[in-house]
Design brief:
Layout (H helix, E strand, L loop, with lengths): L1 H7 L3 H4 L4 E3 L8 E2 L1 E9 L16 H26 L17 E7 L9 E2 L10 E5 L8 E4 L2 E4 L7 E5 L1 H7 L2
Parallel strand pairs: 2-5
Antiparallel strand pairs: 1-3, 3-4, 6-9, 7-8
Length: 174
């Protein structure tokens, strides 16, 4: 998303109130090297727009539109999953109450001088129901683990990647 890229290419002092640099790691584990903006989306009455970047000037509008469209996609995907699990179509969607906590996270992976042993994110699982990811073709490096083996995830411009989170995995066993 060009708007996010433009935000992250600002001078550090301009973006520091909104973004956080993640550089965790030790001599025994790889370094996480990313910048991120975490935007509270829901509950809507607790959304603090002053915590959303205002540069580039259209960032907030673009993110607001992305969030609205992502919620529609989330509901469509979750309804389809419910049908596959032979549940009522709105069974899982009804779990997303007006008070459910939802975040949009925008990540940026700046160049690192010695890329060996550096992750944008270390291996993890998502605790959410689903994660909707708009990947940047220019970045690459996303991998998923299946049966102990890591696979590269191909990305195409404009395509969304949808990941089943731990919460949905638990729900599917009920």
């Amino acid at each position: 998303m060009a708007e996010a890229r433009e935000f992250f290419h600002q001078l550090p002092q301009m973006k520091q109130q909104f973004s956080s640099m993640q550089t965790g790691g030790s001599q025994y584990q790889p370094i996480d090297w990313s910048e991120r903006v975490r935007l509270a989306i829901e509950p809507e009455d607790e959304r603090d727009m002053s915590r959303w970047p205002d540069y580039p000037h259209y960032f907030r509008d673009v993110m607001q539109e992305y969030v609205c469209k992502s919620k529609k996609i989330r509901d469509q995907v979750v309804r389809a999953i419910a049908r596959l699990l032979e549940l009522e179509e709105d069974h899982l969607v009804s779990m997303f109450t007006d008070r459910a906590i939802t975040f949009a996270v925008v990540n940026y992976y700046p160049p690192y001088p010695a890329p060996d042993g550096v992750f944008g994110f270390r291996p993890h699982s998502d605790g959410r129901v689903i994660t909707i990811l708009l990947a940047d073709k220019a970045i690459g490096g996303l991998q998923v683990c299946k049966d102990g083996r890591w696979y590269n995830v191909p990305t195409k411009p404009g395509c969304l990647l949808i990941f089943v989170g731990d919460s949905l995995e638990v729900i599917s066993f009920l």
